[in-house]
Design brief:
This protein is α+β, with helices and mostly antiparallel strands. 43% of the residues lie in helices and 29% in strands. A hairpin with a 6-residue loop joins strand 1 and strand 2.
Length: 63
């Protein structure tokens, strides 16, 4: 793959990671009593023009 592709991919994934973390942290702050609770998380990635739907699931542990 080209350098331009790699750079645009990294930029996109960094944006996804940073903005997702900010959104999760804000939601946790705005939710009462998250201590010790576990939350199911799911990200669904689709790319227009490609036959792609990629799902990632996991757990987020409250403070």
């Amino acid at each position: 793959m080209s350098d331009d592709f790699n750079m645009s991919m990294r930029k996109f994934l960094k944006q996804v990671g940073v903005t997702s973390q900010q959104a999760i942290e804000e939601a946790m702050r705005n939710t009462a009593d998250t201590a010790g609770k576990s939350f199911e998380a799911k990200i669904v990635l689709t790319v227009d023009g490609l036959d792609l739907e990629h799902t990632v699931t996991g757990q987020i542990q409250g403070d």
